Amino acid sequence: xxxxxxxxxxxxxxxxxxxxxxxxxxxxxxxxxxxxxxxxxxxxxxxxxxxxxxxxxxxxxxxxxxxxxxxxxxxxxxxxxxxxxxxxx
Length: 89
Prior knowledge:
This protein is an alpha+beta fold. The chain has a single domain (20-83), classed as Metal Transport, Frataxin, Chain A, CATH 3.30.920. It is 35% helix and 9% strand. It has helices at residues 2-9, 27-36, 71-83; strands at 40-42, 49-51, 60-61. The protein has a three-stranded antiparallel β-sheet with strand order 1-2-3.
C-alpha cells in the first residue's frame, strides 16, 4: 500500500523538514546569541536586560532562573515578535 501511495502522490512519504533550530539552553548561550545578533546585555541589580538599536529605549528582561521548560522558547518568541530578529540558530 505504501509504494502505491508513493507512486500516486509522486513523492516519498518520508518525514519532511530540516535539522531544526538550536535554541539557547542556558543563560550564557542566550547572551552569546543575543550579542551575535546585535543586542547589548546589561547586568546589574535585578534581572539582566537586553536592548537592540531597533527597540529604541525599550528593553527585554531576561530570566536568570526560568520557571518552566518553555520559558526560553517564550522569550525567544517575544524577542522575535518585538524586533523581527530570530535569535535561535
